[in-house]
Fold this protein.
Amino acid sequence: MKPEENILGHEKIGKLIRKFSIPCIISLLVNSLYNIVDQIFIGWGVGYLGNGATNVVFPLTMVCLAFALMFGDGSSAYLSLKLGEKKKEEATKGVVNGIILSVIVSLILCVTILSLLPQLLNVFGCTDVLKGYALDYGYIIAIGLPFVMIGTTLNSIIRADGNPKYAMTSMVSGAVLNIILDPIFIFVFKMGVQGAAIATIISQFLTFFINIIYTKKFKSITIDKSKLKLQFNIAKRVSTLGISSFITQMSFVLVVAFENNLLAKYGAYSKFGSEIPITVLGIVMKISQILNSIIVGIAVGAQPILGYNYGAQKYFRVKKALKIVLGTSIIISTIAFILFQLIPDKLISIFGSGDELYMEFACLSFRIYLMLCIINGIQIPSGIFFQAIGKSVKSALLSSSRQIIFLIPSMVLLSKIFGLTGVLYAGPVADGLAFIISATLLVIEVKHLGNNKNKEEILTDDLTEFNNLNKHIVITISREYGSGGRYIGKLLAEKLGIKFYDKNFIAKVSQETGLSKEYIEENEQKREKLSNLNSGYYFGINNADELFLKESQIIKDIASKESCVIIGRCADFILNNNKNVIKVFIYSNMENKIKRATEIYGLSKDIAKKEINRINKLRANHYKYYTEKEWNDPKNYDICINSDSLGVDNAAELICKMINKTETLEFI
């Protein structure tokens, strides 16, 4: 029976984008609004110096958020992968380790910030005028950081457990409570910035409490006291899977650190002073973050739609989804651009009143710093598009280009030339340069979308029907590219009279996932090192993970039913607990690998060497990611064979003799 087609492959694109994007936009907006609400009430109740103080404390909360998201998103990814592998106990361990890491690190950061707050504030550009307010606000915020971090970590895990509505509800509940408590503590109790900080941590405690309750009713796992144990290998794995979220947040912290220090330095030489620029530009960046949250939410919502249809080679649906994402994003960024240019004084007034210099610099900041925000509607979705289709190098470039590659160097360079206004002009310079790169890569990719389709038909491997073995045995063969490992496996299958599995997996996986055969052949067993920097887990596993999980299921099913030879695909790891498996690794020296590549694949020597190195690195990364082991480590295998020394025929014969002499193999 043909499996039901994935909804991503046939439902109306617009409907799908609305379904996936709206919850994501709401979640991102709630995160953005938390600090903005504080600033609105502080601006009216304390004044702009209070807002300046929150701006220099804000990076500290972002550092904590970076760790919380690393552990939360890493646990979410681990949970999805292990549940896909039907390893519920392992999935539970990943979640538990993520939570424990969040608890430990949150307490360390809390103690560190409380102990070193004055020194840390100096790092983020705090001036003497702002320091009193910043200390009052920062000490209280630091006390609540463990609740913030643990609540945020749990929020990601709850979403991955299949309950995004609960996760969103807990966040919105905290945000609503913050809106209620801020005016009470600031205006009624006359507590100023301390009142805003107290309102914030009470609100964040509510989110924490709601999420803690959920730990007793996980859908996919069960957590009890016996499982509350930190395991280094799992903790490391969880952190690695969440590194993308950590880097994204920390890049923002780095930008704010440079920006505040430059504003303080060059502002002191201007008529505005240091405090006005730090306050105003902090507010401007947070307002622009609302715009970016909407655009990111739209693009991330479309990510699974783009990824699935790209893999299924339904390129017309990919183009249609991309067109909707870009069109919607540009409309939103255009509206924002008009507001920033026409009514900057009205926007800054939302955050309280200020003197003439304050309003003057606010108008300058909106009109200069956000001059090219209109093109964010293309730059941001482009990075997420490349992430969705598995182009990790391009995605990593686009994701880091604006903040790290262009903005920080532009601020440093232009401020030296133009002083305070140079910091402002760094914004449009970074936006413009990032746009040029993203638009160029996007146009090239869309232009060639579908043109690189593999025209050759994937041939099913010959399957020998006669089995001359009197026992049930499976031989897994991992091999370096060009070592002759696949041919050795085929010879071995013929000698033993058992089935040979390699490319015939592709048709089966294609049937079960809806992804095209060409896409599977091009992307399976290949993982770029930069892929970890572009992992998105808002809506479950991605195409690469689905390929691995489906192939794992097929490998286990085949191994349970018949004797066979299986090539690659981490089969040695997948069948590690099976007693009737012989695990083989085939390798050879570079000279002979090049010789085989030139003779068999018709490559030149230079190209052959590059291709050998490239594919072997991809195989090693793939193996490392899914097994947490080194691909070429002899300890993973029962026998490692140098095909140069024996030749492919003798290598196959050696494995046959090894199998025939192994009498202790048991049936499954």
Notes: Confidence is low (pLDDT under 50) at residues 453-460, 462-466, 663-668. Residues 1-24+270-450 form one domain. The chain has 23 helices and five strands.
